[in-house]
Amino acid sequence: MTATEFKAKTPEQLREQLLALKKEAFNLRFQQATGQLENTARMRAVRKDVARIKTVLNQKAAEAAAN
């Protein structure tokens, strides 16, 4: 997903998606350790999505604090 798609969501939706992505990253790490991971690029995509969500959450928190 792109940052603009994340910005359209509420903070609660972002937290839920962040939790789901962290679970996926955990599972991907286990698949890699056991040699079952087929799509290695998915790990990088998940990490970047986590970073995007955290950035948007911080921006929304800063906006709320400024108001």
Automatic annotation (TrEMBL):
Family designation: Belongs to the universal ribosomal protein uL29 family.
Protein origin, superkingdom: Bacteria
InterPro entries reported in the protein's UniProt record: Ribosomal_protein_uL29, Ribosomal_uL29, Ribosomal_uL29_CS, Ribosomal_uL29_sf
A Pfam family hit: Ribosomal_L29
UniProt protein name: Large ribosomal subunit protein uL29
Single annotated GO MF: structural constituent of ribosome
Entry GO terms, CC: cytosolic large ribosomal subunit
HAMAP family from the UniProt entry: Ribosomal_uL29
Any one Gene Ontology BP term: translation
PROSITE patterns: RIBOSOMAL_L29 (PS00579)
Signal peptide: none
CDD domains listed in its UniProt record: Ribosomal_L29_HIP
Keywords on record: Ribonucleoprotein, Ribosomal protein
